[in-house]
Structures are given as structure tokens and as C-alpha cells.
Amino acid sequence: MTKKVALLSAALLSSIAIDSSAFAAGRPTPQRTQLQQQRAQQQRAQRPRTFIIGQSDVLRRSGTPGAVAQARLRSLKKNATEGYAAYQELVVNNPGAKVETVREGYYEEDHSKPHSDQHQIVKVSGVPGGVLEATHFGTLSTHDLFDSNGDNFRRQVYEERLKNDGMQVSYSWGNSGQFKVLAKMSRSGDVSKNDVKIPLNPAGSTFVKYERLGGVDAQGNGGVVVGGTGGYTMGRLVEIQWDSK
Predict the structure, then answer these.
(1) For 28, 43, 67, 201, which has the most beta carbons within 10 A of its beta carbon?
(2) 28: phi > 0 → left, psi -120 to 50 → alpha, else beta; which?
(3) Residue 206 near residue 177, CB atoms below 8 Å
(4) CB 155: neighbour CB atoms within 10 A?
């Protein structure tokens, strides 16, 4: 062995020893970094995933349905006075359920254009019993409480709505059918929260509708629609297609 080859071999052995020593000591090495990335990917894949049917598309968040629902409630309450039209969200609670977007909801101020306000369509699977269990959130409408420049929030009107506005969420097999009430409140506050069970249509679509109500008594009787799907279909009506599995 020549002197040059001997020196190279010694350097290589020294490099391997240093790299092994670093791995054993926990210092970053290419091998350790790759293993850590693989473990992180496996942990993310094993975390529970919860689906949210939002006002225009489907969201997916890490965590149990209960934890995700609490996070969504905090977020919705934080945005309660930001000037949004009233809309609904559904946090899916069924274990193993999956939701995907078939068509996103769409809204445009100019209603003279075709499809300027269309509802969202989603596909649900992994609900073998045919009943979609969800936590339903409905927000208060504040889009009309600012002036044309987006300033001067009318706090007094907002407070009156908190005290007086109710809500209801209902479903129908087919959009032209008779809607059946799932939940109704005489005072819904800034964000209403209701656990609902939605029977899914095995031979067509199920529609879920959210409406703001006025004049509901303390027992939940009566009421007139003050904010319905006609004013904002995208955020207040969702069509659910079920694969019967």
C-alpha cells in the first residue's frame, strides 16, 4: 500500500468514526435527519383528521372533532364583528368519515352574472349508517353594520341582534322538498353551536340550510326569516352527496 493510499484510507475510517459518533451522540447527521423526517411523517399520518364543511369549500384539520370544533368556535367568535354575511359551518363528527369538494361555493356581488351565488356541493363517504353527525355553527350577520367606507361600526344594532336574532338549521332530501328542522334557537348570539344528526339521502342529494330568524319566542316557536338562502346561497346552503357506504 502506497503512502498516499494509506493516508486516504485512514481519513475515510476517521470520517466514518466521527459520523457514527455524532449519530450516537444525537448530533444532526444526514442519516438522523432522514429518520426524523420519516418519523414526523408517520406521526402526522397517524394523527386524527377532522373535516369541516365550510361556507365555500371543505377544510381538513388535525385533531379530534371536539378539539377542532372548539378551535373553530374561537375563530368564528373572533371574526364576529368583521362585517361578514351570516354563514354556516359543519364540523363532521363521524369516525372514519371523509368529505371532499365536488363544487366549491361561489359568490359575486353582481347578481346579473350567471352563477353569481351558487351553493357548495360535497361528497361524503365512510358513513355506513347514513346519518351524518356534525357540530353546526351559524354566525350573526354584520355585513350591513359598516358605512360604505367600511368604517363606523354600528355597535348598538349589533347588540340588538345579539339579543333578538334567532336561527334554525334544517335539511331536505332534494332542494325542492320539505325542509325539516334540525335545530332552532330563539337567541343565537354571535355564533350558534348545535350538535345535529343529518339523515342522508341514499338515492340523491341532501340539502342543509341555515337561516337567521326574528320573532322566535322563548320556547322556540314562531319566527320569520330575516336572513335566508336568497340573500347568500353560498354560505347558507350546502348539498351533500353520499355514496351509501
Answers:
(1) 201
(2) beta
(3) no
(4) 10
